[in-house]
Sequence to fold (442 residues):
Amino acid sequence: MLRRFRLEEPQSVAEVSELLGRFGESAKVYAGGTELLLAMKEGLVQYERLVNVKNVTGLNEITVTDGSVTIGALCTHHQLETSAALTEKLPALKKLEQNVANVRVRQVGTIGGNLCFAEPHADPGTLLIALGAKLITEKSSSKREIAAEDFFVDAYETALEADEVLTKIQVPVPAANGRSAYLKFGYLERPSVGVAIAFNLAVGCAGPAPRRVAEAEALLEGKSKDEAERNLAQAGAVAGRAAQAISDLHGSQEYKEHIVGVLLKRAFQRALS
Amino acid sequence: MARAMTRHSEAQSIPVSFTLNGRLHEIEVEPHELLLDVVRDQLGLTGAKRSCDVEVCGACTLLVDGRPVSACTTLAFEVRGRSVLTIEGLAEDGKLHPLQQAFIEHGGFQCGFCTPGMILAAKALLDENPNPSEAELKHFMHGNICRCTGYKKIIESIMAAAKKMRVKA
Fold:
């Protein structure tokens, strides 16, 4: 059961920002609703108003420019999993998107909603950190870029200000195709652990928020293949600790840390293959 | 606070004009009303089932513009201007859809609770990919859960229907 709320249907980013500024914590952005509506049905959160952003134009496109792919925040997972641009430029992200939740969630859930809701067991944030993505945000009269690694503050908490709207995600294309990988493991609907390698190394799902692990990167970056392979176990241990794994239904802390190491080794091999 | 509560409970009505199983419907809904409740309770079509209520099991699957959605977590106003298909709209002129026929012939259901969602999801799959491999079928259908059959006969049913539909097409 959902409690009654009012619906606002703005047509522009400036209007969205204005509404969010005016109504503060009593209003929430609503896009696909696949996560927000669940939390509302459970009574975990309650809003007086939802601001439906799906009428704002220009935010559901995928464009390729020099060395980067720009993804509109309203692109659905289904749009991303079937995108020719992603197949060509960001195969790891495409593969991740093909495996988000299930076909119904992918049909309506948006990439922007996924990132802004910041559910700890979400996949995209981890790979976007590894890819060095930038999140473009707007307010009524200003615009800024937030590095993906700075976006996730804590579980369900992002760097967005109250009246700030995520509009686009800009993802640099890795130089040689395929030199990135995202692997996840889990036996419930949502993954227990996710590990991504690209420009950066990132871990997610195991703890409250996805994290870049620079200390593990240092063990692999600029090394010969043999040397990097010798360092993999240590990098895995470092990444495991950095994941801030939590013991829960998805597994114990110790177990998740171990899985981070296993996935890191496999992701490394996949990124090089 | 008192004022906020008053504002909170004010009803807001949204006109929704949409096609349901090929027929135009014009209804009014409140923003918080769920598609599953509207279809089951207001429009009397009870094929779609409420089960997990968290988009995991697929028992409430409906097709909106041909694509599967979880009606349990879809706001009803979202179908404005769109075309909704429920299991009740699948048979044509009293003749079962090849998927329905195949589920009967191949024992694709036991208790039948998951079947409307299963068949609608399978229809979306076959409309997009008339000749799926078993791996593609499993990937597409993994979000529809059956607690009786062990899936083997469901997969057989969908594969058999796919074959029949390809011959027909």
